[in-house]
C-alpha cells in the first residue's frame, strides 16, 4: 500500500502541488508514515509534508499543528508550521487516485542524526527541550482532539500481526497495569510519543524537535522512555551497553530537570514504559516488514524482545531511581 501511495505522489501529486503553490521544484527528502519534500516559494525554502487520508484525517492534523504552535509560541525548539494563503494550516489535495493532506513547515538549520555525532550538549538539550514541552502542556488548558495511548495504531493491530498468542496475553496484562496508573496534570497529557534522536535536527549543540505525527495522550514518562530506549538497545539488541547509557540518562535528565520536574515514581517505573515501546516496535516490524526479508537487527530484536515479554523480564536492569537522585 505504501509503495502505491509513494508512486502516486511521485508521478501525479507532486506536479499538482508544484503548480498549485508555484513551487519551483519539490525534492523528496524522506519520510516513513508521511512523505516529506523540500521546495522553494519566492526563493525561500520550506518543508512540505504529505499525508494520505488513510493515515490521518484533517481534524487530527489540525490538532497536531495547534499543539506545535503552542509549543513554538512558548519557546520550545520546534519547527514552525506555516499557513497557506487560505489561512489554514492543512489543505486537502487530490490526485487521480487518492486524497491527501499537505502541511508546510519552516525549514530550520540543522542536519539529521546520521550526519553528526551526538554530543553531551545535544543530549542535555534534548532533555531540556522535552522538559520544556511537558511543562508547556501542563500549563495549557486546551483539550486536543488526539487519541490516547491505547488507541495507538501499532497497539491496535498488534494481535493481528504478532503471531505468538502468548504475547497477546502479555499485552493485555500490560494495558491493564497501565490503566491502573494515576493521571494528573503533572503526569499525563499530550506528548510527542516518538521522541527519539532521529526526530531531531542538529545545529552544533542545538536541537530542533520535528515529526509530531504520533502525538497522543500518554504519561510524560513515556517520552522519556522512548528517548532512552533506542540508545539502550543500540546497534545490537542482544547486547545492551549499560554503562554509557547510565551516563546518557543522567545527562538527559539533567537537561529535563532544568525545565521541569517529574515525580520519582515515574522514574522507578520506566521499565513499564519501555515494555510499552517494545510492543509498539514489535508490532511495527511485523506489520511493515516481509518476514522473509528481515535484517539481522530486526530478527534479533524480535527474538530477544519476545523472550523478555514471555518471561516477564524487564527491558533493562538499570537503577534509574538511584541515577536520578545523583543528578
Mind explaining what this structure looks like?
With 327 residues, the protein is of the alpha+beta class. The protein has 2 domains: 2-106, Phosphorylase Kinase, domain 1 (2-Layer Sandwich), CATH 3.30.200.20; 113-326, Aminoglycoside 3'-phosphotransferase, Chain: A, domain 2. It is built from 11 helices and 10 strands. The strands form 3 sheets. Strands 1, 2, 3, 4, 5 and 6 form a 6-stranded antiparallel β-sheet that branches. α5 (165-179) packs across α9 (270-288). The protein starts with a helix and ends with a helix.
Quick structural summary:
The chain has helices spanning 2-20, 58-73, 120-139, 153-161, 165-179, 220-233, 242-259, 264-268, 270-288, 296-310, 320-326; strands spanning 27-30, 35-41, 44-52, 81-82, 91-94, 99-106, 188-191, 200-203, 206-209, 216-219. With 327 residues, it is α+β, with helices and mostly antiparallel strands.
Give structural attributes.
Aminoglycoside 3'-phosphotransferase, Chain: A, domain 2, single chain, 327 residues, 10 strands, two-stranded antiparallel ribbon, Phosphorylase Kinase, domain 1, alpha+beta, 2 domains, 6-stranded antiparallel β-sheet
Amino acid at each position: 500500500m505504501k509503495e502505491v501511495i509513494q508512486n502516486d505522489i511521485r508521478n501525479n501529486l507532486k506536479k499538482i502541488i508544484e503548480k498549485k503553490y508555484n513551487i519551483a521544484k519539490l525534492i523528496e527528502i524522506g519520510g516513513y508514515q508521511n512523505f516529506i519534500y523540500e521546495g522553494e516559494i519566492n526563493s525561500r525554502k520550506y518543508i512540505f509534508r504529505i499525508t494520505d487520508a488513510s493515515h490521518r484525517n484533517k481534524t487530527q492534523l489540525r490538532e497536531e499543528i495547534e499543539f506545535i504552535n503552542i509549543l513554538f509560541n512558548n519557546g520550545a525548539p520546534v519547527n514552525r508550521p506555516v499557513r497557506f494563503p487560505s489561512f489554514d494550516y492543512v489543505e486537502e489535495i487530490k490526485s487521480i487516485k487518492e486524497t491527501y493532506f499537505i502541511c508546510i513547515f519552516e525549514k530550520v538549520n540543522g542536519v539529521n542524526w546520521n550526519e553528526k555525532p551526538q554530543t553531551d550538549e545535544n543530549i542535555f538539550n534534548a532533555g531540556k527541550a522535552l522538559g520544556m514541552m511537558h511543562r508547556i502542556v501542563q500549563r495549557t488548558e486546551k483539550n486536543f482532539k488526539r487519541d490516547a495511548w491505547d488507541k495507538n495504531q501499532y497497539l491496535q493491530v498488534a494481535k493481528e500481526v504478532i503471531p505468538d498468542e502468548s504475547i497477546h496475553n502479555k499485552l493485555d496484562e500490560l494495558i491493564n497495569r497501565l490503566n491502573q496508573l494515576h493521571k494528573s496534570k503533572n503526569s499525563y497529557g499530550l506528548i510527542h510519543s516518538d521522541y527519539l534522536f532521529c526526530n531531531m535536527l542538529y545545529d552544533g549543540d542545538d536541537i530542533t524537535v520535528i515529526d509530531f505525527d504520533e502525538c497522543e495522550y500518554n504519561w510524560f514518562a513515556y517520552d522519556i522512555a522512548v528517548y532512552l530506549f533506542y540508545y539502550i538497545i543500540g546497534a545490537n539488541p542482544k547486547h545492551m551497553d549499560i554503562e554509557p547509557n547510565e551516563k546518557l540518562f543522567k545527562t538527559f535528565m539533567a537537561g529535563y530537570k532544568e525545565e521541569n520536574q517529574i515525580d520519582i515514581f515515574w522514574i522507578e517505573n520506566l521499565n513499564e514504559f519501555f515494555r510499552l515501546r517494545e510492543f509498539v516496535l514489535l508490532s511495527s516490524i511485523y506489520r511493515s516488514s516481509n518476514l522473509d526479508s528481515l535484517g539481522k537487527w530486526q530478527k534479533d530484536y524480535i527474538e530477544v524482545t519476545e523472550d523478555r515479554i514471555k518471561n516477564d523480564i524487564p527491558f533493562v536492569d538499570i537503577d534509574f531511581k538511584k541515577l536520578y537522585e545523583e543528578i
